[in-house]
Amino acid sequence: MNTATNTLHAALALAASGVPVLPLRRGKVPFGNCPACADNACGGRLNMKTPGPCRCPRVCHGWAAATTDPAVIASPAWAAAWRRAVCVGYHPGGAGLTVVDLDDADAIAWARTALPATRTVETTRGEHWIYRGTMASRNAVRPGVDVKSAMAYARWLGPGTGRLTDLPDAVRVLAVKEPSTARSAPHAVTVPAGAGDGECPHRTPTYLERGIAMAEQRITAARSAIHATVYRTFLAVLSRHGRCGCLTDTHVTRLFTAAQAKGETARHCMDAWTNARTRLGL
Predict the structure, then answer these.
(1) How far is the CA of 45 from the CAs of 25, 58, 182, 272, in angstroms?
(2) Range scoring the smallest mean pLDDT among 44-48, 62-66, 241-245
(3) pTM, entire model
(4) How far apart are alpha carbons 224 and 230 in whole angstroms?
C-alpha cells in the first residue's frame, strides 16, 4: 500500500469518527484554489463555517474544504491532491474542538502553569493541547502559541494521550484583542471591584481564592506581551467571578499589584480592568 493510499485511508477513518478532513501539501498547508475559484471568484466559502455557495468538486478554499463525506474524500476530483499530500489536515472547529498549538519548550512550560491539563499530541517541535469546545482562532496569541478552532485547520498527528477536557476561559481569552482606548491626562484612580448582582455559583471561598492566586501567577510568570497578558487575565477573572459579587477591592488590588510589579502603571491597570468589564457587559 503506497503513501497516498495510506493517507487516504487515514482520512476516511478520521472522517468516519466525525472529524472533517482535507489533504495538506508540502509545507503542511492546504491546496490552492482551482482557476475557477481563484480570488473567490466563485463566491467562495472562506468565511463560512460550512461550505458556502461554491460547489467546486476540487479541494478548494482551505479549511472550508474539510468534510466528513466519504464520497467527496475518495472522489476522482480529490485523487490528485491525495497523491501529492504529505499529511491529513482537519478542521478543529468542525469537530467541536480547539487546538492550542505550542511551538516550543517555552510555550509548553507556559501552558503547564497557565492552562488546565487535557489531551496532548506531540508535534515536530512542541505539542497540541486539545480541548472540547469551539472558539475564534487566532495566531501568535503569545510567543510560540497559536489557537486553532473555527475557520482554521490543523495537522492530524494521532489521537494523543490524556483525557479530553472542556475548553477553559483561560484559552478563550487568548483570542480576544484588547480594545484601544484614548488616554486622557493622569488622575487619581481607585480599584473598583464592581459588585455583580447574579447568583453566586461558588460553593466555598477557596474557589475564588484559587482563581485569584492563579491569575497572579499568570501575570507574574509573563516574560513578554505584558499589556496583553494583564488584560487577558483580568478578562478571565471577570468572566468567572465578575457577575456574582464575590470580587472585593482586596482581590482586585492583588491583581493590580501583580501587574504593577511587572512594570504596568496604575493607569494602564485601570484601563485594562475597565476594558475587560466593558467587553463582558459588566
Answers:
(1) 20, 13, 37, 36
(2) 44-48
(3) 0.65
(4) 11
